[in-house]
Specification:
This protein is an alpha/beta fold and about 270 residues long. The longest helix is centred in the middle third of the chain and has 25 residues. The model has no long low-confidence stretch (mean pLDDT about 95). It folds into 2 domains: about 170 residues, Rossmann fold (3-Layer(aba) Sandwich); about 80 residues, no CATH class. Helix 1 packs antiparallel against helix 4. The protein has a 7-stranded mixed sheet with strand order 1-7-6-5-2-3-4, with helices on both faces. Helix 8 links the parallel strand 5 and strand 6. Helix content is about 45%, strand content about 10%.
């Protein structure tokens, strides 16, 4: 656990916002490589440009937009193809193609969970279930704020047996074409609808959007720099850590395994 220098706890935390993918759930772990494979197959390479240079460009674009609905990344892919002299399809076409590719991976994982072949906790970030239950037990109101379509998050949360802790407070785009949805909008709505101040908000996330937006409203932000290359390793993903601390995260953790040490920091 890493604390930002000068960290000060908030005394009136009442609501907790969790990102879904990579923060609580590993069902979609590897989505970045699925998207990367799509981009590398479709973006024309410039004369003299190496495969590694193209991969670096794609990586920056994909992760810069992480936390937003993936239609935004699909639109960026179309722009990259066009600016390099290609004839792009629509952003919706690329989004549909990405969802098809990712859906094959996700579908197999959900089937394994539902059949009992794989334990539900295998696809939750380490100790995430205990963290959810602990915060709920303390009387905090829990929300999921995801860039993944809401219907998919609800389905996955039910399969992993954590949906009951969130009720209707699972937020995400309504469809693959929902460009109006934003985590900023949801966070603002939470503050408004529950009549709370930003200092009452605690957020956990592995994307820069939820970290940045939580800090903008005066909340406390915990970066969950999950290692998605080796599940449950307990290691910090260094690029995630650097990106999230750079967005102003107050605390950085690899997962929730040291919850007992984290709680006194959050609730002194």
């Amino acid at each position: 656990m890493e604390l930002r220098p000068g960290f000060r706890p908030h005394s009136r935390l009442t609501h907790v916002v969790f990102d879904w993918d990579g923060t609580l759930s590993l069902i979609r772990a590897g989505w970045g490589e699925v998207m990367m494979a799509q981009w590398l197959a479709l973006i024309p390479r410039l004369p003299g440009e190496s495969a590694e240079q193209l991969r670096h460009l794609a990586h920056d674009d994909i992760w810069r937009l992480n936390g937003k609905p993936s239609i935004h990344q699909a639109a960026q892919l179309a722009e990259r193809i066009q600016e390099r002299g290609g004839q792009p399809l629509s952003a919706v076409d690329y989004e549909n193609d990405y969802q098809r590719r990712l859906g094959e991976v996700v579908g197999a994982r959900l089937a394994a969970v539902r059949s009992g072949a794989v334990a539900t906790d295998a696809w939750l970030v380490t100790a995430a279930r205990r963290a959810i239950e602990t915060f709920a037990g303390r009387g905090l109101t829990l929300h999921v704020v995801s860039g993944t379509q809401r219907r998919f998050v609800v389905e996955e949360a039910e399969a992993l047996e954590v949906a009951q802790h969130f009720g209707r407070r699972i937020h995400g785009p309504t469809s693959e074409h929902d460009t109006a949805y934003s985590k900023r909008g949801v966070i603002n709505a939470i503050l408004r609808d529950h009549a709370i101040g930003g200092e009452q908000l605690l957020a956990f996330g592995d994307g820069h959007v939820e970290i940045e937006q939580t800090k903008l409203v005066g909340g406390l932000a915990v970066a969950v720099a999950t290692d998605e290359s080796q599940f449950h390793s307990g290691r910090i993903d260094a690029p995630k850590r650097d990106r999230l601390m750079g967005m102003g995260a107050d605390i950085c953790i690899p997962d929730f395994r040291e919850l007992d040490a984290l709680l006194p920091v959050l609730f002194p």
